Amino acid sequence: MNKKMIALAVAAASLSSVATAAEVYSDETSSLAVGGRFEARALMKDTDTSSNKVTDKTRVRVNIAGKTDITDSIYGLGFWEGEYKDGEDINNRHLNAGIGGDFGKVVYGKTDGSLAALTDFTDIMAYHGNEAGNKIDAGDRTGNNLAYIGSFDLGGNNLVLNANYVFDGDNENVAGEYDVNGYAASAIYAMDMGLAFGAGYGEQDGYGPLNTEKAKQAFGALSYTAGDIYVAALYQDAEDTLVDGSLIKDSKGYEFAAAYTLGKTVFIATYNFLEDSDNNIDLRDSIAIDATHYFNKNFRTYASYKFNNLDKKDVGQAAASDEFVLGARYDF
Prior knowledge:
CATH superfamily: Porin
Membrane topology: Multi-pass membrane protein
Subcellular location: Cell outer membrane
Protein name: Porin
Structural class: mainly beta
Family: Belongs to the Gram-negative porin family.
Keywords: Membrane, Signal
């Protein structure tokens, strides 16, 4: 997530208590910090063969961030984050280095695409949500990616600009189905009075074996923060994108999110809808609620439930099943 943007537009002090990474080394010009999380997650849902099956979704993330001053206003940086789940290989979520300054920062490697800053408006739940934010790979986190982000103070208001280009080459998508090649850009304006809004657009080449036209996607997002209350909305319109491995010629979707902080507990609800507009088929339709209790800045527990409104006659038992998740998370 864009932490500075979330702090301004999503009131992160209320919605999250992520611990600051620990500095493990520093000298006059350089520093190194280590952070991450241990997160136990138990998912209960129906499958096509059994009811109320419990699946272990436990994971651990570790990140290392380095920074060194080059001049009084220019610095070099590097960042790595890996995630491990039992029985799987380590997933390199971030792996990049670059240069920064008053102009912002430019990095190359595996890093977030520019559309992620917009889906962050409503992607605030402990587990569920973000079903309508079906980003193309070039707008999401991917490798072979040259990315820019700049945050500018405008008299108490804040402007965040993102742009990235994913080069053509040996850079497969998550499923290994095609090489990612495209670009994305977004702009977010957060006002001091609690209102924030943003828009973004991305394109990437058609999916190799399908030989389609360029995938195109546009996002719009809006949020408002008032004390302990936060509300947000996200809208997307896309052409030639993949949903669950299927090519969708024309899709539209939206997500609404609301959060309320009561002491050390945060209550969140979201509604997600995504449709195949050409064929008038619902791809996502769900209401999710969760509650997260923060014992301190390092430890939290949560419960999350998704009410799935899809019809099992159309998509099958597993795809239409409700879900219940219990989690415990330790940040360091």
